[in-house]
Write a structure and sequence with these properties.
The chain is mostly helical and about 140 residues long. The chain has two domains: about 80 residues, lambda repressor-like DNA-binding domains (434 Repressor (Amino-terminal Domain), Orthogonal Bundle); about 40 residues. Helix content is about 65%, strand content about 0%. The protein contains seven helices and no strands. Helix 2 crosses helix 3. About 5% of the residues have low confidence.
């Protein structure tokens, strides 16, 4: 029985990352400047040379290391961490407080009142402008 670990299947990792990104093989092929059939062949390959892997990583928007170390279990574990958050202290999943220190209706009324005051000042300014222009016309 061998204790050597089996190398990761890079092509399968590329396929899974592409699927998670919502990208079709054809879109990846266009980004890489190759045919969809060739992308399919790459995704079936256990190993890929570093130069090509760099281009693929760039097209997928991930690092080469992310492709090499990708695992479905890691993705599942990552998303499960969001379910393990303790909500008993009234904090959201990302540690933000969900308690507001103001009443949104009061803020809306304040904004309305402020807009009303600004409109009244604008109206007064326009009245002054009209009266000034009327005065100029009468002088001529």
């Amino acid at each position: 029985m061998s204790t050597a670990t089996k190398p990761k299947h890079i092509g399968r990792n590329i396929s899974r990352i592409r699927e998670f990104r919502g990208m079709k093989q054809e879109a990846l092929a266009i980004a890489l400047g190759m045919s969809q059939q060739y992308v399919s062949t790459l995704e079936g390959s256990e190993t890929i040379d570093d130069e090509r892997l760099n281009k693929i990583a760039e097209a997928l928007g991930v690092s080469v290391e992310a492709i090499k170390s990708f695992s479905d279990e890691g993705v599942i574990n990552y998303f499960n961490t969001f379910n393990e958050t303790d909500f008993s202290n009234s904090q959201g999943a990302f540690g933000h407080h969900d308690q507001y220190t103001f009443n949104p209706i009061e803020k809306l009324i304040e904004a309305y009142d402020e807009n009303k005051k600004l409109y009244e000042r604008l109206l007064e300014s326009e009245k002054e402008k009209i009266s000034y222009l009327e005065k100029l016309l009468k002088e001529k």
